[in-house]
Prior knowledge:
Layout: E1 2-5, E2 18-22, E3 25-29, H1 46-65, E4 68-71, E5 90-93, H2 102-115, E6 120-123, E7 128-131, E8 134-138, E9 142-143, E10 153-154, E11 157-160, E12 164-168, H3 177-186, E13 190-194, H4 201-204, H5 206-223, E14 226-230, H6 239-242, H7 244-247, E15 252-253, H8 255-258, H9 270-279
Parallel strand pairs: 3-4, 4-5, 5-6, 12-13, 13-14, 14-15
Antiparallel strand pairs: 1-2, 2-3, 7-8, 8-11, 9-10, 11-12
Helix pairs in contact: 3-5
Amino acid sequence: MRVMPLAADSLGVRSMATYVEAGELRLLLDPGASLSPRRYGLPPTPDEEEALERALGRIEGYARRATTITVSHYHGDHYRPEVDVYAGRRVWAKDPRRMVDEHQAARGQALWRDLAPHCVMESAEGRVTEVGGVRVKLSPPLAHGLEGSGFGFVVAVTVDDGTRFVHAADVQGPASPVATAYILRERPDLLYLSGPPTYLDAHVGKDVVRRGLDNLLRIIAETGCRVIVDHHAVRDRRYRERLGPAFETGRVVTAAEYLGRRDECLEAHRPDVWARHRTAGTALPGQSRERRT
């Protein structure tokens, strides 16, 4: 099995887009990427804009290779609305009519309506199939973070060719005991998930973040799996300190590290990156560039 993160927060953009090849399976997971429009009161830096352009290019390139595409939920960093990304492929997408918040329901229904004439659209929840001897299983709806958070639900994907890979977008830790139990039952060899959102302490609560870390450590201890922790987890400049117990297991890496690259958590370091650009004479959007003598 070949697992390739295409775009991720540790690669400079908000995303968990991933491409998987196993036997005859050519699977693209969550083909979206975006930037936070405001963080620390600042817009995206030119570095982030360039990273986004590269990420979208990679996603589009691998979409052409994929025969199947999954969409875990309808936040803008997890799917693309453009028909060309999906046309001619089988698409397993979160059902936009059930266990979904109003905002995502509207987005999801629009995507289903636009894609219906161009590809095979099927609800992802609970689907189990085989592609050339490779088993693909999609979860029931799992909480986006903790149950009752208001962020809706997501669908996780397991690919099993003898090695078991689980892609669990936006479970945030996982914070939910239900999501934790589901992942434990899947017994992954490699798990890719969004880690505890320590940068949102004040919003989700420190207890939820701590619970997410505890559940992550439990999964590692009980399964011995390797884990790619990224997305929400690395938006905190102190994420290695805040998630120290997980990294200290020796089983946890970021998406960039999994690819053998150094972390480029551009959003987390946006003030520092803008400071470098201002030193070089680049003005913030909406500001005049100072004349340099």
